[in-house]
Amino acid sequence: MTFLIRAATLADIRQMAEVAGPPVTVRSLADWMDGDSAYAAWHLIEDDTGRILGFQHVGRSEALPRDFCEIATFLAPGPLPPGASARLFEATAATARLLRYAAISARIATDNVAARIYYQNRGFRLYSSENSRVSMRFDLD
User: Fold this and answer.
1) Domain 3-139 CATH class label
2) pLDDT tens digits for range 20-36
3) In angstroms, what CA-CA distances link 2 with 67, 83, 88, 89, 122?
4) Which of 22, 63, 92, 115 counts the most CB atoms within 10 A of its CB?
C-alpha cells in the first residue's frame, strides 16, 4: 500500500475525527483548527484511496516555554504502511523547525505504552513525570 504525507485541511476534519475517536469530535477538531495560530501545523497520512490513516498537530502551549511546541498524534488502529508513522513525524518535525521551535514536547498518559514507544522510537526522551502523565521531548537542533 502506498501513502502520502500532506498538510491537513478543514476538508479532512470528518475523517480525522473518525481516526481520533471519542472524545474528539468533528466540532472539537474544527474549533481546534480554527483557533490555531500561525505557529501551529497539521499533517496527515493518507493511503492511495484517500483514506486518512493518522495525523499530527504541533503548536504552542501556555504550559511550555515559548520555544517549545506540543505534539498530538492520532493513528488509526491496525497496521500502517511501513515507514508511514516515521515519515509523518519527519514532516511534522521539519515544519516545527521552520516555525523556529527548539523542541517538541509530548505529554503522555503513563499507561499509554504504545504512545511512549512511538515517541521513543522517534528520538524523544523523558524529561518530566507528574501524576499520571509523563513528558517527553525531541530537540530540533
Assistant:
1) alpha beta
2) 999 999 999 999 999 88
3) 35, 10, 14, 17, 21
4) 92
